[in-house]
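User: Run a structure prediction on this.
Assistant: Running it now.
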Amino acid sequence: MFGYAANFTVYTMAMIGLICFAMFVYKKFFLNANFNNKSQFLGIEESISLAPRKNLHVIRAGKEKFLIACDVDKTTLISKLNENSTKKELTEELPVIVDFQKKNVLKDMVKKINEI
């Protein structure tokens, strides 16, 4: 009985070792060949995280660059960037967020009530 258990253990460990070795060889030689071919055409030049799961990326496609915004649900093209643009020109090209003047709504309501 002891001989049967010892033989079973030895053969099982040998098969597990053979499977692990086969997986190592497969990962080393076959998977890396597919993933090491980095594209010379497409690439991420710069990236910045705005919030969790919200990012801005500068993407290079050939000789052109694009500014895109990525969110969980969608990816949006913001603008195409010129190759010779300076930082000042880039900020002038982007839309400006306008701050609304803060109004004291409560004072305006009190004035209107007093006028009545």
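Residues 61 and 110 are 58 Å apart (CA to CA).
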